[in-house]
Amino acid sequence: GGVKTNCDGETSIPNLYAVGEVACNGVHGANRLASNSLLEGLVFGKRIGRHILSRETKEKVNMLAEKEAKFIVLNHLPTKEEIQKCMMKYVGIVRTEQSLSYAKRWLSKYGVRNMILQHDVLTNEEITLINMLTVCELIVVSALQREESIGGHYRSDYPDRNIGKKEIVRVKRKRQLV
């Protein structure tokens, strides 16, 4: 599963890329080994970076003022250890709707999902924490939506693989899958 991408990490949505755990590029099956996904993230991450840099983009992103951005970020962010502890305890190896819902509530109180920030006014640690919170929230939402156990995703409240509930979404643009 995952977001269908081409070899440059492009999805069917313009300017949206996917890499690593979220991407489905046909390289691995449902039970991809952890060490392979790390290598895949490095290889395809580099490819995506090169692809983006080779394109000219004229779109501008609305940014918050420097003061506002700094205030929002410094309002309160958890530590890396707090994020890791939450994810391991509630989103770890064995998952349930209850544990995933708790993690979703815990993550949502930091409100990073709707932030648009100027990276030049943030520290590397702040950027890392914001990125961690964003990825964790996406993992939790995806795990809540998947009501079956498959590959490395095990829901004790849905222990079986639900063959009948398989849904594949493909988008064609100019007769080509994207």
TrEMBL record:
Organism superkingdom: Bacteria
Keywords: FAD, Flavoprotein, Oxidoreductase
Reaction(s) this enzyme catalyzes, per UniProt: L-aspartate + O2 = iminosuccinate + H2O2
Domain Fumarate reductase/succinate dehydrogenase flavoprotein-like C-terminal positions: 81-162
GO function term, MF aspect, one: L-aspartate oxidase activity
Cofactor list: FAD
Pfam families the record matches: FAD_binding_2, Succ_DH_flav_C
Domain FAD-dependent oxidoreductase 2 FAD-binding, residue spans: 1-38
Stored InterPro entries: FAD-dep_OxRdtase_2_FAD-bd, FAD/NAD-bd_sf, Fum_R/Succ_DH_flav-like_C_sf, Fum_Rdtase/Succ_DH_flav-like_C, NadB
A biological process from GO: 'de novo' NAD+ biosynthetic process from L-aspartate
The protein's name: L-aspartate oxidase
Organism encoding this protein: Bacillus cereus
